[in-house]
Specification:
Blueprint lengths: L68 E2 L3 E2 L3 E4 L6 H8 L5 E4 L12 H8 L9 E7 L2 E3 L41 E3 L5 H8 L4 H8 L3 E5 L7 H11 L9 H17 L6 E5 L9 H7 L2 E5 L31 H13 L4 E4 L5 H11 L8
Helix pairs in contact: 1-2, 4-6, 6-7
């Protein structure tokens, strides 16, 4: 996701819809429209429901995203991502003028430069042009430190207190910064997210989650949940477990716990606050019941097509890519779909995000996402 104008195929794990579910609309999958400097991604919803056909209101324990009824009877048949350019009110107004039922946006209040007018952002986007309510989710990266956020300290009196990423054998600072982004996203650094200081920044009093809820967002959209499966993060957990005298650190369990803490914190402000995880489909296998209770939906990238990270849409490799490591082993298209069946069985809807530059590939995603005799979305 990140700086290539909103989303990017940058994770090791994604997934998609699975068999014997009921389609939300006649058109599923994703399309993207490149609008020069705005570079807006337009994402079509591919929400799914339990294998019995459709998710009736209230059938899901948290009453969201099933069938097309979401929080407070808001119906979702499509959604859109936009992370960049929302520091300009005219861009917010353009987004507000669309008919999308759900928006995933960068909240923008904690950019170190050019922060968004988040009050205006939320107020404008919460209602569609026809007066219907719209779901607005705040995109956040919970598994990486980002050097363009206001929490990234760079001008301290004592230079030793400045934050920095690891470089040439020099460890990161603070010490919860583990490594550099494995997919090449500049300014992004995987962290030991179980660290008390990192967690406090998010779920402590006045922390980021509390601020998001106070601004009026309907929920959070979590990037880099797959950090639990990052090799450097796993190595850090093992190193911290050695000789500690306490139970070994499980990155998977710690990630679930972190998400639970964010959910609990936000729901002290808004009881029906939503939590949508992106990617990391196999995290469910760690503890299915517990993880299913921690999230309201999952969104997954790259089922059919992916793109390289941190490049513009006009660059080669921006999208339409298939095969390679991204589509091998557990992350083949077939295995992604099969893993999603587990979520659907538990009543967890699944959204799909594919990276298509060509219209023909976008059409394929729409076509292949529709119900067939072999599987349904």
């Amino acid at each position: 996701m990140k700086s290539r104008e909103i989303v990017g195929g940058r994770t090791r794990g994604t997934q998609e819809k699975a068999p014997e579910t009921w389609p939300v609309t006649a058109e599923h999958g994703i399309t993207y429209e490149h609008e020069s400097e705005k570079q807006i991604h337009r994402l079509r919803l591919a929400a799914t429901t339990p294998s019995r056909g459709h998710l009736r209101e209230g059938h899901h324990p948290k009453g969201v995203f099933g069938h097309v009824v979401v929080q407070d009877h808001v119906e979702i048949s499509n959604f859109m991502y936009q992370l960049q350019e929302l520091f300009e009110t005219e861009r917010i107004d353009e987004l507000d003028a669309t008919d999308y039922d759900m928006l995933v946006v960068e909240p923008g209040f904690n950019f170190s430069e050019f922060p968004y007018d988040t009050d205006y952002l939320v107020t404008q986007l919460k209602t569609k042009p026809n007066g219907d309510e719209r779901i607005v989710l705040a995109y956040i990266d919970i598994g990486q430190a980002e050097d363009y956020r206001d929490y990234w300290l760079s001008q301290q009196v004592d230079p030793a207190d400045n934050w920095r990423g690891p470089a040439l054998g020099t460890p990161g600072n603070p010490d919860f910064i583990v490594s550099t982004d494995p997919d090449g996203w500049a300014g992004n650094y995987p962290v030991a997210y179980w660290d008390v200081d990192w967690k406090d920044m998010w779920v402590g009093t006045g922390g980021i989650i509390e601020q998001i809820a106070d601004y009026g967002f309907d929920g959070i959209y979590l990037d880099w949940v797959e950090g639990y499966d990052d090799d450097d993060v796993i190595a850090r957990a093992a190193a911290e477990s050695t000789g500690s005298g306490s139970a070994p650190i499980s990155p998977a369990v710690e990630m679930i716990e972190f998400i639970e803490e964010m959910r609990a914190k936000a729901q002290t402000t808004k009881s029906d606050f939503l939590v949508v995880a992106q990617n990391a489909p196999y995290l469910l296998d760690t503890d299915p019941a517990r993880y299913a209770s921690a999230i309201d939906a999952i969104a997954t990238e790259d089922t059919w097509f992916y793109g390289e990270g941190d490049i513009g849409w006009d660059a080669a490799g921006a999208g339409d890519l298939t095969g390679g490591d991204r589509h091998s082993g557990d992350y083949s298209t077939a295995n992604r779909i099969a893993q999603n069946e587990k979520y659907l069985t538990l009543g967890i809807p699944v959204f799909t995000v594919d990276y298509c530059v060509s219209q023909s590939n976008a059409d394929q995603v729409y076509r292949d996402s529709r119900p067939t005799d072999s599987y349904r979305w």
